[in-house]
Amino acid sequence: MKRISRRRKPEAPGLKGPRTSGGPAYRVLLSHDEEGWSARVEGLTGCRARATTIPRVCAHLRSVLPRYAVPRTAALNVIFEHSAGVRVRNLRVLRERTERAARAMHDETRELATTLFAEGLTIRDIGELLGISYQRVQQIIKGD
After folding, report:
1. Is residue 38 a contact partner of residue 47, using CB atoms and an 8 Å limit?
2. Beta carbons within 10 angstroms of residue 77's beta carbon
3. Mean pLDDT in order along the chain per 10 residues (144 residues)
């Protein structure tokens, strides 16, 4: 079973999430047509970019931000201008909540398994109670 890391991965320039610079978040409107992707920053006239992929269009957009006195690390709130745009946003929020819940579940499982083992329960019984295999309980107890 893969171990869940508590460290956050560095953010890519695409839709992975906003970068933080301490300043305001800029709203980026992303759209797609037969020629590829285009993005424009709301409120910054002429601040736009085009590319064939989302990561490239976001990277191009970040490269022109300094022309508008905006740091490249500014937080970007990317909005997909499409009929399914709201569904995309809702799915991303749901995925983030699910990942947060998975981390909390992992931490609680580890803590509870360790506590129950310290109180004298067998590894097999702990596995049955927590709904995981006894092998996984052994890994947790060993600190894997």
Report:
1. no
2. 14
3. 45 48 82 94 93 94 92 90 92 96 97 97 97 96 86
**Letter for the amino acid at 34?**
E
Rounded to a whole number of angstroms, the distance between the first and last alpha carbons of the chain is: 10
* Element holding 133 (H helix, E strand): none
Tokens of 89: 């946003």
DSSP 127: H
Neighbours of 78 (CB within 10 A): 22
Is this model's pTM higher than 0.70 or not? no
**Alpha helices by DSSP H, 33-84:** 54-64
| Alpha carbon separation from 122 to 116, 127, 141 (Å, rounded) | 8, 9, 11
